[in-house]
Amino acid sequence: MKAVVMAGGFGTRLRPITEKLPKPMAYVANRPMMEHVIRLLARQGVSEHEVLLYFFPDKISSYFGDGSKWGVSMNHIIAEGDYGTAGAVKSSGTLLDETFLVISADIITDFDIARAIEFHKEREAAVTIVLTRVPNPLQYGIVITEEDGRIVRFLEKPGWSEVFSDTINTGIYIIEPKVLSLIPPKKNFDFSKNLFPAMLERGDRLYGYVAEGYWKDVGNLDEYLNVHLDILAGKVNIDFDGTQTKDRKVWIGEGSRVDYTAELENVLLGKDCVVGARVSMKNVVIGDGCVVENDAAINSSVLWPAASVGKGARIHESIVGTKSQIRGGAFLAERSVISDHCVIGADAVVKTNVKVWPHKVVEDGAVLSSSLIWGEKWARSLFGAYGVVGLANIEISPEFAAKLGASYAATFGRKVALSTSRDSHKMSRMINRAIMTGMLSVGVDVHDYGVTPLPVVRYLSRSKRDELGGVHTRKSPYNPSLVDLKFFDVSGLDLSMGAEKSIETLFFREDFVRADIDETGEIEFPASGFELYVNGFLKSVDTKTISSKDYNIVLDYSYGSSSIIFPRILGRLGMKTVALNAILDPAHTTRTSEEFDKGIRHLSTIARSLNASLGVMIDTGGEKIFLVDEKGDLLDDDAALQVVCLLACRQARHGLVGVPVTASRNIEKIAARYGMEAVRSRMLPRFLMETAAREGVVFVGDGAGGFAFPSFQPAFDGMFSIIKILELLASEGRGIHEVLREIPPTTLIRRNIPCAWEHKGALMRMLALYAKGKPSQFIDGVKVFEGEDWALAYPSQDAAYFHLVVEASDESVAVNMADHYVGLFQTWSKQL
Q1: Do 449 and 477 form a contact (C-beta atoms < 8 A)?
Q2: DSSP symbols for 494-513
């Protein structure tokens, strides 16, 4: 059988050790990682190898030659362009007229490939995807199969709430040649993103084989270290060179010398190495020709060939590149990476997570606390569930922000305009200016709106033809140490995942071109933005109906930027307002839950004492609102969503309303009552706003104080929501308390179920199996119905627990259902 070995990887997230090296040639256990793949295939009888090359192809072809050293025949093919995985195979020109294997050159595995091929033949499959189970499947493509292996669903890079299984795609495929006809020539076409979903839709024989054994995608520096620890712990069956000691804890390469006083445990020592007196090493891989001098201590680290470690130096959980020198007394802290041909001076300190690019020198006694040449933050991705979030001036520093601004702007090309805005905090001002600098540096113009509510700049992006998107900087409303960066597109909506990925690619590769001196961008400070928003706002509501009611409201601005613009709108409507906290106060940008509860109680007391028509707290960012009715009673978020949905449906009487999967079942009943339909969405703001942008949608609510009326804009806008709710109430001549009485009573219970991070994928798989055969939904998490009652469980995005939401007509039934699911999770957790 032929194997197509995919060896074109850049190794971007392994930089700086792959700065001048293709990823398949990075050393793992003293061999290029591709060599482990070649040896595995040779052992299992796959001897014809077509190797697809792209990045530094000569370094691979010169090392492996014709493959005869490993008992295989090897043909090297340099790709003409970046055609994706499937496109690369199709465009390679290789004759593939029999069943063939596709495998990545940058994985470490000991799978029984021969057994997978047998499975493929037994099932008469068109394609068999080799699968494995992992504790954290978020970063991989999840594959869901029937009991016989037939694939029924793909989930590419899911969120936790979509992890219905912990079975993932390993990037190893067994393919029949007829499948090649489905791949367009010389076009970007991927196996997992394009080909396999198309085959699934066609009903082709697409199978998954769950392999036993070890598999690791060496995708970043953490995984690179971890795979070595796994190898030394005996978790993977691969070949070592060298002689094993009697206690089986050390492998010593040919020509190496170890002083008898050295203490070594779980150490792989390459050829021609020298280890001095009283050296301590544990869980370490040492490359060929390395020297470790007396009294040095190395723990959980990897040294590439010809590196040297001076007397008394200490290295902890670090990587040292080829021919680099760690001189006497130096200290490398956890997760530091020293690239090739570097010198770390005597008694110097390299702090945690610092990366040093090739050919750099750290002077004697220096303390290096930030990376040389490259940025400090090396996460797998920049964007999380809620944008880019990080510690102020540590993770999100001016340098980071400038580079991110340049990466974002570079996705558009030269001489376009993007907007920037912020809250009133001085940290936000600093980061905002750094982002602007990055944008200008790649030739993009900037419209800076300064202190402006996020809904306003979203609206302006939709309304102004010359702005293609923007970024809003704010101090986190939930954590005083964090900064949030909110990116949005020309429609004012959160960026798509594809756009986020493009920014991340440019950021990590620094693959953007700075503008020439006369082509740098220009800054404008538009003066008409607020007026454009106000005019569009007032055209989107029935001002006569609102003004005809003698409304008096109590409004808590939460010290946010809505206090700059909303009074202008209220004045145009002639509305009587008692304003609370209507000043910009950066010290109150973030509120604890206790401060929020105290504030809402204060609002309720004042609204009741003044007999106000409505009491409203608008959050600092101007996106969400919290309601107090005409009786002075606070509406909880679930009740508020149902009331506003009822009012919107009664006015529209046709179209769609959008809510998250956590919303009450009453939403469907309310919509149906007025000839409308409810659309359930995933819970993140991105997906709710995408729902709001759909044709025919008249209202969207998130069940957490966010409301969107797409006739104005498909984004959460607290100011517009307040006025629209007053319009809806005015048209009926009623108050919120009276409308609330129309809502059928139900009980909604929310709980958190603790679980280990590494068990989330397995627990989702068990929950999905439990739901099989029962009425259920898999929109976001797993939702199981019992008549009208239901329970929804989904993993937290950022904490070690599952969220559980239960709704039932009777409180005791809801409690029993919640207890039942908590018990299930506890039982399943004990089995893992």
Answers
A1: no
A2: BPPHHHHHHHHHHHHHT--P
What residue type is 805 in one-letter code? V
Alpha helix (H) residue ranges in 703-789: 718-732, 736-740, 760-771
Is the pLDDT at 523 greater than 70? The verdict is: yes
CA–CA separation, 387 and 391 (whole Å):
13
- Which amino acid type is present at position 106? D
Question: How far is 490 from 793, CA to CA, in rounded Å?
Answer: 34
CB-hemisphere CA count at 13 Å for 170?
Answer: 31
Region for 249 from its dihedrals, namely left if φ exceeds 0, alpha if ψ lies in -120 to 50, beta otherwise = alpha
Q: Retrieve residue 699's tokens.
A: 């209202």
Per-position DSSP letters for 418-464, written without gaps between them: EEEEE-S-HHHHHHHHHHHHHHHHTT-EEEEEEE--HHHHHHHHHH-
pLDDT at residue number 376: 35
More confident residue, 86 or 448: 448
Paired strand residues for 338:
320, 356
The closest of 569, 500, 521 to 419, measured between CA atoms, is 521
DSSP secondary structure letters along 796-819: -SSSSEEEEEEEESSHHHHHHHHH
CA trace torsion 420, 425, 428, 429 (10° rounding): 70
Estimate the crossing angle of helix 33-43 against helix 57-64, to 10 degrees: 40
Kindly state the average pLDDT of the residues 181-192: 87
- At 180 the three-state DSSP class reads helix
For residues 443 and 470, is the Cβ–Cβ distance under 8 A? no
The separation between CA 233 and the C-alpha centre of its own chain, rounded to angstroms, equals: 30
Cα torsion through 232, 233, 236, 240, rounded to 10: 30
Tokens (6 digits) for 338: 């020293």
- pLDDT band for 377, please (50, 70, 90 cuts): very low
* Max Cα distance, the chain (Å): 95
| SS3 per residue for 281-346 | EEEEEECCCCEECCCCEEEEEEECCCCEECCCCEEECCEECCCCEECCCCEECCCCEECCCCEECC
Rounded distance between C-alpha atoms, residue 739 and residue 745, angstroms: 13
Q: Which pLDDT score, from 0 to 100, does residue 238 have?
A: 87
Is 222 in a helix, a strand, or coil? helix
pTM: 0.69
The whole-angstrom separation of Cα 685 and Cα 693 is: 12
226 sits in which H/E element: helix 221-232
Query: 42-91 pLDDT, tens per residue?
Result: 998 999 999 998 888 899 999 999 999 999 999 998 877 778 888 888 88
